[in-house]
Structures are given as C-alpha cells and as structure tokens.
Amino acid sequence: MTLTPQSYQSHFKKTFNLAYPVMLSQIGHVMVGIVDSIMVGQLGTEPLAASSFATSIFHLFLMFGIGVSYGITPLVAQAVGEEDNHAITRVLRNGIIMCTVAGLVLFGGMLLTSLFLDQMNQPEIVVELGEPYYLIVATSIIPLMIFQNFKQFTEGLSVTKQTMFITIASNLLNIGLNYLLIYGKFGFPELGLNGAGWATLIARAFMMVAMIWFVFKAKRFKSYQAGFNLRKLKATFIKPMLKIGVPSGIQFMFEVGAFTVAAVMMGSLGAVQLASHQIAISLVSLSYMMATGVSAAATVRVGNQFGKGDGLNLLRAGYSSFVMSLIIMASCALVFITFNKFLPTLYVDDLEVIEIAGSLIIVASLFQLSDGVQVVGLGALRGMSDVRIPTIITLIAYWVLGIPVSYYFGFILKIGPEGIWYGLLVGLSIAAVLLFVRFRLLASRFMRKKLL
Q1: For a disulfide at 311, which of 26, 75, 372, 450, Cβ 3.0-4.6 Å?
Q2: Contact between residue 151 and residue 166 where contact means Cβ atoms under 8 Å apart
Q3: Number of domain units in the chain
Q4: Is the pTM of this model over 0.85?
Q5: Which domain holds residue 210?
Q6: What is the C-alpha separation between 62 and 252, in angstroms, rounded?
C-alpha cells in the first residue's frame, strides 16, 4: 500500500467533519444535566445543591462506563485501516455484551453507594432530597451503556451524524418531560427534583432504542449484521476491548473523581457553596464535552493511521486535533471570562450563589486550554492502544497533586471555594503537559520505525 503524506489542511478538515457531530452528541449528554440544573434551580438553592451532590457521584460511575465503551472505537478504527470486516463484526457482537454487563454492574455499584450518602458530610436536606433523585438517575446507566456500545461502534466507522440527531431528539424529549414532571403541568404529577430524574431515565431509554434501530436497519451496516448474533460470543474477543476500555474508564474516574471530591469539599462548606459549584461545573462540563468530541475524532483518525502503519499522517492527525481543541477551548475561556456574572443568573436568583459561581467560572476559564489538551491527548493515545501510562499520568496529576492542592488552598489557607478549584487547575495542567509529551514521543517513535 502506498502511503501519501496529507497536508495539515486536509487533516483539519477530516478531523472537524468527524468531530463536530460527536461534539454535539457529547454536548447532548451534558445538556441533560445542564437543563436539569437550570429547571431544578427554579425550585430553590437546596434542590439545586441536592442535584449537584447526586449528579457528582453519578458522573463518577457514568464516566467510568463511558471509558469502558471507549475500548470499542480504536479497535474498529484500526480494523478499518486494516480493511478487516470480520474483526469489525466481532467488535460489535462482543461490545453489546460488554456494555450491557458493564451497565448492570455500574447500577449495582450505585445502589451500594446510595447506602452511604448520609455519611458524606453533606447538609441533611441535601441528602434527603438527593437520594431518591440519585436512585432514579442511577437506573438510566443501563440504557445509556447499551447506547454507548452502538455509538462507539459507529464512530469507529466514521459515522457520527446520526448519533448527533438521536442525541438532540433525546434532549428535546428531556426538556419537555422536565417541564411536565418537575412542575406538574398539563395534569402530570408535580415531582420536583425527582421529576428531572424520571425525565432523564426516559430520555436515555429513547436514545438506546433509537440507536439500536439505526444500526440494525441502516444499509451501511448490513455487512456487520452478524454482530447481532450473540450466540457466537467469545470471551477472548472481549479481552482486547477491556484492555483499552477499563484503563480508559479509570482515567475518566481519576479526573471526574477529582471533581466529585471537590463537590464533597464544597458541600462541607454549605449548600450555597455546593449550589455555586454545580452551576460552574455544569458550564465546564459543556466545554469539556466539546473537547471530548475532538478527542473521539483523534481516536478514530490516529487509529486509522495506526492500522495502516502510516506514522507521518498519524503524527499530523494528532497535532491537528490538539490545535483544534486549543482553538475551541480558548473560545470557551473567553466566553466564561466575559459572561462570568451573567451565566449564573440563568440558574438562580440567589445573589450569594451568583457571586461565588462567578468567581469559580473565572478559575474555570484558566484551565480550559489544559482540559482540552489532556482529553485530546488521552484520545490520541487511545487510538494507538496506549492506555497504561496515560492512566498512571492521570492518577498522579489529579490525586497525588490536584486533590491535595485543593484541600490545602481551600481549607488550610482558607481561600474557600476558589481555592478548591485552584487544585483542579493544577491537576489538569500537569496532565495536559505529560499527555502531550507522551503522544509526541510515541508518535515520533512509530513514524521513525515505519520509515526504517
């Protein structure tokens, strides 16, 4: 096979065409939480704080599950590069089982965690309101993980737009159900915070059904239909997915876990601080999911070149993804700085909450570039099936350095909420530098090897 170097302009175009539907799809995931926060915020500070507490713990399990599903995409992308349709079919079949089992296990873990919510040093009213909401949302992990299997499978084949449309439709459904069930409109019961939970569960079940239907019926996937025959399951084919997916899930857990610990620290300061944290974190999640769209594209593009053995285009595909992420995250940082006082008013009218949230949004603007680089670094390295060292990097960055700095600034120096977020800034920045260096080292080494 003759390998032709592609221009950076070509790489940017291909990465963008892959990334923007994934961005919108990923934004759809987090928009469920943002819409919930905005609509729940109209009920008051305490329901918003309860939503923050429950959502922070749920996201810890959610991101691990999403990380596990990420073991599917690079294997599909590499098989595409190798033109091996049988391998693609095996990934679909075994991915269905892997993600379904993962969803059930994660649900069990969340049920177990619910027994200890009252021991996490949170205000009593926050736990009282948050526990039933948490249990409802926990159930949604099962359909969401099944959806993730098909989403990651189609992304590996560079098919991303249909997932975007399904996610947008799901979000519209979630908004409508929120309105009906939170406030009790048009004869529906007024369920308050729990109504947001039921809306989320129903919307995610819709996503699952729609995605299965699309993959099963679309002509472009006809050659992979044997993947739905689960009787041919072989555990040996699940192992490669878990080898990539479990470390990827752990990577996400280290990062999201750091933000979860930050939320628990905030809750120990009070409901006002926790509500402020929820506002800021929901906005940060929005920009982060945009970066994960580029990261997903980086996994596919790097994975394709890795499968072809094309080191030069692998390096260029990775670099173009880093640059695209920096542009996007710099734009988000500018928006955060400009509208840091206005954005919190979309959630609440509590002046103290608005003031603290505005300060946290300024800190968030400082780590936007680092957040973008580190998540794209993880995606690009995943495309080369490199997950062990990146997992160690995330552990050191967030838990050995970031969390201790958060505690030191927040409680020892008594800086408060902003101090807790300074620790997150430190962790993300260290992770960004080390992951970029790791990608550059491996990609350059791969390129030199293929040129010999």
Answers
A1: 450
A2: no
A3: 1
A4: no
A5: 9-451
A6: 9
